[in-house]
Structures are given as structure tokens and as C-alpha cells.
Amino acid sequence: MNALPAFKTKVMPVVVIDDAEAAVPLAEALLAGGIDAIEITLRTPAGIIAIERVAKAVPGMVVGAGTLTRPEHFRHVRDAGGVFAVSPGLTPALAQAARFTGLPLIPGTQTASEIIAAMEEGFGFVKLFPANLAGGITALKAYGSVFGEMKFCPTGGVTAETLADYLALPNVPIVGGTWLTPPALVKAGDWAAITALAAAATKAAG
Questions:
Q1: Distance CA 54, CA 72 (A)
Q2: Cα-based angle 43, 106, 66 (whole degrees, multiple of 5)
Q3: For residue 2, what pLDDT is reported?
Q4: Can you give the pTM of this predicted structure?
Q5: For the segment 86-99, what is each residue's pLDDT rounded down to a tens digit?
Q6: pLDDT (tens digit, 9 = 90+) per residue, 129-176?
Q7: Is 168 exposed, middle or buried (0-12, 13-18, 19+ CB in 10 A)?
């Protein structure tokens, strides 16, 4: 499948945007803390607008979209300037949409059968979601012995306290999480606090 764009961070913020006005200062705050990629979810109507604004105004940030659940989402994300996509699961229609639009996709998996299905579609990098419900570090160790070439981005239940343990696994190059952008801080516009969280995560990730 399509190769992901290059970014340095090992910690991917998973962001729910309620107000698109917050998107640019939020992205700038994360970038100041050493995080150069962001997953803005399509869980709210502001998601696509936020992606477009960050893509235009924050050139140092690699912006992608999360929670893609329908094929038409891929075109909307691409047209808004998003350069990668993340889905909570995978279907043949979603894989086809990713190929058609040229948008790199990180599909969500939870079971061995879902990982095999992703491999059959040509994916070598998937999301383990929700990681805490899928077995977390224990599951990833087991999957590493079975699916030696598959890489994972665990998301869902990963915290500031556990991210280093996840990243210590050879099949985990990056983790995702929502703790970097707490809704209360975003609503308050406390960008300094978000920069501090991003800097702490960057340091913990090594």
C-alpha cells in the first residue's frame, strides 16, 4: 500500500476538534513540544475544516485524519490537504478507497484474523485498536512472534506512563493517544500546557 509521509515523532496525538479555530494553535503547540505529526479525527463536523487549516498554516506539521469509516472520507481528507489516514478497522471498500485516492492508510486491527486480512490487502503497518482491550503489550509480543514483518501503532489506553514500554517493543515504532490534547486544555486555549505534555512525551519516547 501507499507509503506513509515522513515524520520524526514516535507519539501520534489523536485529536478530536470541536472548534476549528483551535486547530492551528493546537498544532503549533504540539510542534513546539517536538511532535511533528497529528491525527485529527472525523468524529466532529469541525474535523475536515481543522485538517485544511493545519495543512495550510502549519507547514512543519504532518497532518492526517482519523476515524475514516466510509470510502468517501478519503476524498474529503485528500482534498482538505490531509496526507495520511487512520481507520478504526478495515474493509475491502476502505482499502480500495485508499488505493484510488493515493492516501496512505493505517487500518485498525485487533485480532489475528484482522491482521492477516490487512496483510492480504498489502498493509505492513496497522493500528492496534483499542490496544488496552486487544491485550496491549502482551498481545503485541505475541503478534511479534507470529507476524514478524508487521509493524503496529497501538492506540486506545496508551498513556504517558506506558508509552515507553510500548515503544520498547521491536514491532512498535509509534504509539497514538488522546492524553496529549485534553479537551479541557484545548477549550481553555492553554497551549503552553499542551506544549509541555508534548515535550514530556517526546522525552519519554526517546
A1: 21
A2: 15
A3: 72
A4: 0.96
A5: 999 999 999 999 99
A6: 999 999 999 999 999 999 999 999 999 999 999 999 999 999 999 999
A7: exposed
CB 194, CB 29: distance < 8 Å: yes
- Sequence-distant (6+) residues with CB within 8 A of 44 are 16, 17, 18
Each residue's pLDDT tens digit, 8-33: 999 999 999 999 999 999 999 999 99
State the SS3 of the chain.
Answer: CCCCCCCCCCEEEEECCCCHHHHHHHHHHHHHCCCCEEEEECCCCHHHHHHHHHHHHCCCCEEEEECCCCHHHHHHHHHHCCCCEEECCCCHHHHHHHHHHCCCEEEEECCHHHHHHHHHCCCCEEEECCCCCCCHHHHHHHHHHHCCCCEEEEECCCCCCCHHHHHCCCCCCCEEECCCCCHHHHHHCCHHHHHHHHHHHHHHHC
In angstroms, the CA 64 to CA 165 distance is: 25
Contacts of 167 (CB under 8 A, 6+ apart): 10, 173, 174, 175, 205, 206
CA-to-CA dists, residue 86 to 8, 67, 99, 195, angstroms: 18, 6, 14, 24
Distance of CA 138 to the CA centre of its chain: 21
Query: Which residues are the active-site residues?
Result: 39, 127
CATH says 11-108+158-205 is which class?
A: alpha beta
